[in-house]
Amino acid sequence: MNSIIVQARKLNILHLSSEKSWRGGEQQIAYLVEYLHKKGIHNVIACCINSAFEKYCQQRDWAYISLNFKGSFDISTILGIKEICKQEKIDLVHIHSAKSHGLAVLSHLLGNSTPLILSRRVDFPIRSNLLTQWKYNHTAIKKIICVSQAIEKMVRSNIQHPDKCLTIHSGIDAIRFKESKSYLRKTYQIPDNYPLIGNTSALAGHKDYPTFIRTAELFRQQGIKARFFIIGAGPDKEAIQQMISEKNLNKYVIMAGFMDNINEILPELDIFLMTSKTEGLGTSILDAFACKVAVVATRAGGIPEMVIHNKTGLLAEVKDANQLAEHLKRLIQDPQLKKFLEENAYQLLLQNFTKEKMASRTLEVYHEVLGK
pLDDT tens digits for 286-295? Predict the structure, then answer.
């Protein structure tokens, strides 16, 4: 009997990215799509018109379609999602943001039958209103991928089928950082014996920069010579600058703004200080791990899954500026502890938090949902 060779059809995935700006979530999508391309999987990205992700796709010649993403009931985007699934023979839709979640589910009301996977990156509770409960419990949602165990625990307690939830930690490119060239010290004329303490997170409310500034103030009051850097942009810029000025910390706390050479700047820091009050995971901490920069952080969201107290970093309670300042002082006075934490953090990163590990685990979920 002659054998029959059946060639498997290429898997087609539609990724929904509704955000206009580029933040951690968009970087995770980029890492994932890059990996899937290498595995021979066809990806289509539905992104917001005139968004950072649209430009990213254009630069890399990725297949993309620009949609409006104007709110939770944007009929043109809902119909666009349905049409893409039909025209591109999409096997699976991966929802990467809250806004696109509702739109993808509504496309099923208009006849789209493509299964959905949702990524959840934020650690605030799921709302109890009927619309939110409906879209989280819709039968089209086959899996909910949470970027931390803290988020998974929260989601499980708020949906009808908690077995749909699983954790896949975000990952980073562990080798993209370069050797420090003392850019900050040269630019701001900072002596070599002044420790550099910084944060590269967006200037947004949940990052709690007021606690960052209070920590710096307490540090200064102890007479310790240092410089604190806030590196980034965001809606809270003016309020943060005003607080720094009111406390007369302009020379001690430097707002460096957005910088596109962060892969050279981050390795220059002596300590990374994360003061978030909520945090899905916090991949900027992983960046610090990759640079072997010691981390002091709050116990917010998924942070303790990376920063293990006294092993890969030092933790304080949310808003506890006094404890954060004490941790900074401890690291500066104990170089051996600092090096111990840095080495442990780097090894943990390589084991659990690389972009390859995140992407390969996500592909496993795709195959599980599709029964392949």
Answer: 999 999 999 9
